[in-house]
Design a protein that fits this description.
2 copies of one chain form a homodimer. Chain A is α/β, with parallel strands linked by helices. The first copy, chain A, folds into 3 domains: about 180 residues, MoaB/Mog-like domain (Molybdenum Cofactor Biosythetic Enzyme, Chain A, 3-Layer(aba) Sandwich), CATH 3.40.980.10; about 70 residues, 2-Layer Sandwich (Alpha-Beta Plaits); about 150 residues, CinA-like (Maf protein, Alpha-Beta Complex), CATH 3.90.950. Chain A contains 15 helices and 17 strands. Chain A starts with a strand and ends with a helix. At the A-B interface, helix 1, helix 2, strand 2, helix 3 and strand 10 of A face helix 1, helix 2, strand 2, helix 3 and helix 7 of B.
């Protein structure tokens, strides 16, 4: 089954918005045992015409994103209908969904939104609970011309992702037939790199009959995906855990922060954070997890030295003699936030994000992490992540959460 | 000048590696006044054949990434030469570059690397100081077949980016000539939606001769892109600012947080944040801006009521009688963080992120924002963003930063 993806949107080609759809679709389809044969991006408007015409003649399934909004450059619906020679009509269900979307938000519906209730005759309307643009599904042979199944989907991820899972995936499974669908597992690791897998177990993974596998390296994280029969997946998982089990974050796709929240919850323990260079990112990641309020109570972003001293009781002498980026400051930040919050665990970070502020002794990318535990000692660790500012923050937050995770599972 | 991009690599379509090339090329070309007409991604191997054949017949310039390495699935060089009917020969300069790359690193050169010194006759070798794969440039009319200028470039960003700037950009400028270069502007707005533009000024923008424009809606933000002659862009900008100038974040593509940091810097003013439901996201966004330490000193993530009371002095009676999500708590959080930090401005947020915790009176999505100013009054505003947890946090952080921005420019 040849699947192609057409992403529409001038902003994707101008580089204003990173096109994450291609990779996202790839991962979802891979987990279903399907592959993307080709992906293309075109600007809004008439360029869609040409690309759509080529792709619909070549592919078995075409997933199109974007251009379903109410404004004049949102033309996907019309271009697809015109190319396939199908009339649009106003769909009553789509209209009612639109009206209830606006009613729920107590906003008037603009006349332009009425275009979003126009549907090619014979198409399924795919409800969009998170936005105004319904998706559309045009089955194969909807008209004389095309054997291709065409999905028109909204561009914004918060609308696209739920719609894919509830509306697109079941139809793809039906189109593909059961035989195309494989089992899949995703194991997340941290503290090791993709090359550790290459050198360590890649050749052995390749020898497992019927197993397909792939790596995805992120900042401070490597994901291993396994696809195949239940036996093949179990063999791959055993191999990976025997070699790298101590670095496993989760075997169900859970993020590091979700894993930390779960572990804290299991211990009925509370966490506090004290951040300098990560600027609130650790607290932000923890509070992205639903239910975080059960385990996370206090966070400090002590960006200035004065804040470290007044809020966390870091002695000014230490700040002056050792500098803000030092083992002593990481320790006293962690201990101060543990004391002030009454939490069971506290993690602290202080480092040099750059682009300026580095020295020969403490170059940009240096950070000290502190971990304090109620009734326990305080651990301090130095890390070095010489990366661009936002990537540095992500890498340091990952190191700090991993330090806590290892403590929570009795490894550090 | 029609520019297309072909990214090759199975890992891009499996989603293992995020394809950032499309957006990156877009930004580089946009800055040169050029645009990408179409981008495509295909797996390694034979799929390149079909896509290359189509694109080289259609485009004036084709930029290809990937598949120049030494392994068996790196076939771009051979497929391009074969399709265009050009012989490959061993290039002496390319060979010497390869040899010196390995000599510099004190490593032996593998026989497989010799393939990387094979060059289509008539092509320019583009030196790659950061890797083994030299780039290649095939000028238009290199053979009878194609009027398209073809660049073969390495996939890894650390090899691609320097090569683009030193070797590709100058050739593109020469190919484009001055006449192709258009001006462009990006205006960011907040507090209004894409549909406000549609009803307000879309028809008038369409009437400006020689102006191309487009919108990009994000959470709590709409970007307006203008492309055309300087006169057309000025007319579009005037129109947008006359209607929505009060909602303008920036006219140079700067983010809301970067704008707030700049405005604070211009006033030599300090900011503190006190966050409950956003969980550190506001501080995280502010500290993503280089130089944030000049204006941002203290942040609190007072997730538990007890933290709001002990750290920011919010009276427990208020928390109990009004609830944590209330005007009074937003006010006292803002005032407490202003007092504790000694900053000039403090923003506070408290709300219900969900998925649980909502009531009929205060449903999930409700948040109160507080803004305190040294020597000024305290403002409190209620917002309602009924969205999934992370989107809610983003929307509330946007509302809070916008409240501060308006105060800093004297509008609120």
């Amino acid at each position: 089954m040849k699947i192609e993806i057409l992403n529409t949107g001038t902003e994707l080609l101008l580089g204003n918005t990173l096109n994450t759809h291609g990779g996202w679709f790839g991962r979802q389809l891979f987990a279903m045992g399907l592959r993307v044969a080709r992906q293309a991006t075109v600007p809004d408007g008439e360029a869609i015409h040409e690309a759509f015409g080529e792709m619909v003649d070549r592919a078995d399934v075409l997933l199109i994103t974007g251009g379903l909004g109410p404004t004049s450059d949102d033309l996907t619906r019309e271009i697809v209908a015109e190319t396939l020679g199908i009339e649009l009509h106003q769909d009553e269900q789509a209209l009612r969904n639109l009206e209830s979307f606006f009613a729920l938000r107590d906003k008037p519906m603009a006349p332009a939104n009425l275009r979003q209730a126009m549907v090619p005759i014979g198409a399924d309307v795919l409800p969009n609970p998170n936005g105004t643009a319904p998706g559309l599904y045009l089955p194969p042979r909807i008209n004389g011309r095309s054997n291709c199944a065409v999905f028109l989907l909204p561009g914004p991820p918060r609308e696209l992702y739920p719609m894919f899972h509830s509306e697109v995936a079941p139809r793809l499974r039906a189109l593909a037939g059961v035989s195309d669908v494989a089992e899949a597992a995703e194991l997340k690791f941290t503290g090791i790199g993709e090359s550790d897998f290459h050198h360590g177990i890649d050749a052995q993974l390749a020898d497992i009959p019927g197993l397909e596998y792939g790596y995805c390296a992120r900042i401070g994280e490597v994901d291993l995906r396994l696809i195949g029969s239940p036996e093949a997946i179990a063999a791959g998982r055993d191999l990976a855990l025997n070699s790298f089990g101590g670095h496993l974050i989760s075997d169900d796709g859970s993020s590091l922060e979700a894993t930390v929240v779960r572990l804290l919850r299991e211990k009925a323990a509370k966490l506090a954070t004290a951040e300098s260079c990560t600027g609130g990112l650790i607290a932000n990641r923890v509070t992205n997890v639903p239910g975080a309020s059960e385990v996370f109570t206090h966070g400090w972003v002590t960006y200035a030295n004065e804040a470290k001293a007044s809020q966390l009781g870091v002695p000014m002498e230490i700040l002056e003699s050792h500098g803000a980026v030092s083992e002593e400051v990481a320790r006293t930040m962690a201990e101060g936030s543990l004391r002030e919050s009454g939490a069971d665990y506290a993690i602290a970070v202080t480092g040099i994000a750059g682009p300026t502020g580095g020295t020969e002794e403490k170059p940009v990318g240096t950070a000290w992490l502190g971990l304090a535990e109620k009734g326990g000692g305080t651990l301090a660790v130095k890390v070095f992540h010489p990366r661009a500012r936002k990537d540095f923050k992500q890498a340091v937050s990952q190191s700090a959460l991993e330090l806590l995770r290892r403590r929570l599972v009795g490894m550090g």
